[in-house]
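Escalated from tier 1: FE2/S2 (inorganic) cluster holo job.
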Amino acid sequence: MRVNLTVNGRAHAVDDVWEGESLLYVLRERLGLPGAKNACEQGECGSCTVYLDGVPVCACLVAAGQAQGREVRTVEGLATGDGLDPVQEAFVAAGAVQCGFCTPGLIIAAHDLIARTPDPSDAEIREALAGNLCRCTGYEKIIDAVRLAAARKAAG
Ligand code: FES
Ligand code: FES
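Tier 2 regenerated the structure:
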């Protein structure tokens, strides 16, 4: 089947999508966007998180057909022009990236949190990131990064 969708502001028509193919597969293997990561393919780790019509979802759990006519935004789509999004910058600045496998999903989750709650408490940060697993960092630097991103966004 053909699936028409918009990804990071660009319209795509993807042909020969098979039944059961995931949105994650379409993004990574057909559209060449490797930002969303494929780790568990079971909705457990959050490494494949993307925005679907503005709502974070696990792209491994979304059938490609469900994305028909909808807007997807991946971690690649957060940057504007030459500049990284403040959340992306904060993850680098806070040293919140080790192997980096969890990072794209965490950045989408953090980006969504700060958009909804510009000055999140630590508890709100932990809750918002609860679906995103990281094997490397122990989470403290990730939480530092979210605090830093929120402060930088608030400062304009
Ligand atoms: S790969 Fe989608 S939640 Fe783990
Ligand atoms: S930095 Fe390696 S899994 Fe999070």
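The helical segments are 23-30, 86-93, 103-116, 122-128, 140-155.
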